[in-house]
Amino acid sequence: MKILIVEDELEILKKIEILAESDGHTVKTTTSVEGLRQILKSKVFYPHVIILDRILHGVDSIDLIPDLKSTFADSRLMIVSAVDTASEKARALDAGADDYLAKPFSAVELMARINALVRRKSLYDERSHLQIGNLTLNSEDRSAKVFDGGFLPLSQKEFQLLYMFCSNPGKIFPRDLLLLQIWQSSNEIESKVVEATINNLRRKLESHSANVAIKNMRNVGYWLEA
Ligand code: CA
Question: What DSSP line would sit under 117-145, residue for residue?
Answer without folding.
Answer: HHHHH-SS---SEEEETTEEEETTTTEEE
